[in-house]
Amino acid sequence: MQSQLTVRLSDDLDEGLSALSKKLRLKRSDIVRMAIKRFLEEFEGKEEEKPYEKVKNLIGSISSGISDLGESHRKYLLKQFKRHG
Predict the structure, then answer these.
(1) How far is CA 70 from the centre of its chain?
(2) What is the pTM of this model?
(3) CB–CB of 27/21 below 8 Å?
(4) CB 32 within 8 A of CB 17
(5) Angle (CA) 43 48 53, round 5°
(6) Could you please report the per-residue DSSP string of the chain?
(7) Which residues contact 9 (CB under 8 A, 6 or more apart)?
(8) Residue 47 class from Cβ within 10 Å (0-12 exposed, 13-18 middle, 19+ buried)?
(9) pLDDT at 8
(10) Interatomic CA distance for residues 28 and 33, integer angstroms
(11) How far is it, in rounded angstroms, from Cα 17 to Cα 31?
């Protein structure tokens, strides 16, 4: 069974949707269905992704040249503040 959804659009969205509908020669409802489907596919399973998963490709990709930066970060921050303060 199909269900119906009523959506209120801002004037900008309405104009953009109408223009795209004419350009693609598709019904406005078809474009909205395609957009919702794409949105759902893109975000499927994203809520289970942990913060580490989002940045794991960045970890270790940049070197500061300071071997003890993680252990002595306060010392290096204070040094930078004194230099620029």
Answers:
(1) 29
(2) 0.53
(3) yes
(4) yes
(5) 95
(6) ----------HHHHHHHHHHHHHHT--HHHHHHHHHHHHHHHHTTGGG--HHHHHTTTTTS---S-TTTTTSHHHHHHHHHHHH-
(7) 17
(8) exposed
(9) 96
(10) 9
(11) 8
**Tens of pLDDT, residues 8-64:** 999 999 999 999 999 999 999 999 999 999 999 888 866 677 888 888 888 878 888
Give the chain's domains with CATH numbers.
1-59 (1.10.1220)
The pair of three-digit structure tokens given for residue 57, joined into one six-digit string: 């490709």
List, in order, residues 6 or more apart from 76 with CB less than 8 Å away: 66, 69
CA angle 27, 29, 31 (to 5 degrees): 75
Q: What is the CA radius of gyration of the chain?
A: 25
Cβ–Cβ contacts within 10 Å for residue 18, how many? 13
